[in-house]
Amino acid sequence: MSPFFEIEMKVRDYECDAQGVVNNANYLHYFETTRHEFMEQCGLRLIDLTEQNILPIVRNVQISYKNSLRGSDTFLSRVSIEREGLKYFFKQDIYRLPEKTLCTKGVVEVVSVINGKVSKPNIFDEAFKDYLLWR
Description:
Elements: E1 5-10, H1 24-41, H2 46-51, E2 54-65, E3 74-84, E4 87-96, E5 101-114, E6 117-118, H3 122-127, E7 132-134
Parallel strand pairs: 3-7
Antiparallel strand pairs: 1-3, 2-5, 3-4, 4-5, 5-6
C-alpha cells in the first residue's frame, strides 16, 4: 500500500479572491476535506467518533504557499501521516494538475481528545496502520 492518500478536487469559483486566485484560507478547507476522506477510507467517520466522545483536534497548522490555484483548476491533494507521542502529524501537499505543480505544503498537528482528555490514540493507530510512520 502507498504511504500516502490522495484525492482529486476542483477549485470552485467562489473560493477565489478579487485577483482570481484561491483565497489562502481555502487551502485549509482542502486539507481538512482530504483528512476527512482519508479517515473515512480508514473506516472512521467523524460523526461516529463524536458520538463516542472521541475527538481529533487540530492543535497546530504550518502552511507554505508555493504557487496559486485559480478558478476551475483541478488539483491533487495528498496526505501522509506520522505519529510522535500523542500527536499525529498530517503532512499535506496540493499539486495543480495536469503538470503536478506544487501549490501548497502543510503540516497539521492533531491530538486525540477522548472523554475530555488528551489520550493515547489507539483507535486511530489501528485505523491508520497501513499508512502510519513513527517519528
